[in-house]
Design a protein that fits this description.
single chain; about 325 residues; alpha+beta; 2 domains; 3-stranded antiparallel sheet; 3-stranded mixed sheet; 9 helices; 11 strands
């Protein structure tokens, strides 16, 4: 929890965020993710200063348990002085003890945001879904919270001015905006109407622009002129290397291998060319919805369907 200190911006965790979205689809399936089409409503987690602190916190916790479909879980909320915003004890259940930072006694509007993250820890714990390393696992938790409909609360808790700042969660504000935009594209949602923080809205707009760029990367037909031109150059180079080597393009299937024309994250482009059969090529690229890599033949116009999230993609390979 950034409380008065500097707030990190940008996309330093974007690779882990994308891996988290893929992991959610693999563990939950497309059909289960579709059951989260409705986000947590502001009225269901609203917290007034006149509400009883403990009863109100329990009410919000129950609403989040209901949203995540954890009917057999009981979350017991307490408050104590600590460095972090909150902590949850991940026992066998069905009772889970969540401790919130004492500052939430007077910052009650953000209790829902803190609990959204902690109850998601319970959800992922029950799923058996985790990443190695504490930081990576926290990024997974933030991403899952946001993608499954409660993370707009975390972004709305971000407030910053010349005198003070506050941010909850491990993602940057722009990364929260990115994941929210991915969810909005999937379900046709507009989360911006729920924001009470102007800084949160600005971060969402920035993240949405980054998410839209995923939809316009070659070999997708929606790619811009510059991307298409670079893709054509890389494809030509990959074909030249394929023709020159009877065993294919050395390293072409390894993203960031440094082989010209191979593409991949290390080369600044998302696609990778790999040899297939006699003189043929395939190109692999991340699905803009779930980030699972898709492989299609290099032969012009191709319609591909992601087997993980069922997105139909129009490609020009």
């Amino acid at each position: 929890m950034a409380n008065g200190g500097p707030v990190e911006h940008g996309y330093p965790h974007l690779d882990t965020v994308r891996a988290s979205i893929t992991a959610l689809y693999k563990r939950l399936s497309y059909d289960t993710i579709q059951t989260f089409a409705t986000s947590v409503a502001p009225v269901d987690v609203a917290f007034c200063d006149t509400d009883d602190l403990h009863l109100g916190a329990q009410r919000v916790a129950r609403e989040l348990v209901r949203h995540y479909r954890l009917p057999e879980a009981r979350v017991i909320v307490g408050f104590r002085e600590m460095t972090h915003a909150a902590n949850v004890e991940l026992a066998a259940g069905p009772e889970y003890f969540v401790e919130l930072n004492d500052r939430f006694r007077t910052h009650r509007r953000d209790i829902g945001a803190a609990l959204a993250h902690e109850v998601m820890h319970v959800y992922l714990h029950r799923l058996g879904l985790s990443f190695p390393g504490t930081r990576e696992n926290e990024i997974l938790t933030d991403t899952a919270t946001t993608y499954l409909g409660a993370g707009w609360l975390l972004l709305d808790a971000y407030r910053e001015d010349a005198a003070s700042s506050q941010k909850l969660g491990y993602l940057t504000p722009e990364e929260f905006g990115y994941v929210l935009a991915k969810r909005a594209q999937l379900f046709g949602e507009d989360p911006s109407v729920w924001f009470t923080s102007p800084q949160a809205y600005s971060a969402y707009v920035e993240g949405r622009a980054r998410a839209l760029r995923d939809e316009r990367q070659p070999p997708l037909t929606a790619a811009g002129w510059a991307g298409r031109r670079r893709y054509a150059r890389d494809r030509r180079h990959a074909r030249d290397l394929r023709s020159a080597s009877p065993v294919g393009v050395p390293g072409a299937g390894v993203p960031g291998s440094g082989v010209p024309g191979s593409g991949g994250p290390g080369s600044g482009v998302p696609y990778v060319f790999t040899p297939e059969g006699r003189g043929a090529l395939r190109v692999s690229f991340p699905c803009p919805t779930c980030q699972q890599r898709i492989r299609v033949p290099v032969r012009g116009r191709v319609r591909a369907r992601c087997g993980l999230c069922r997105t139909v993609l129009e490609c020009d390979t």
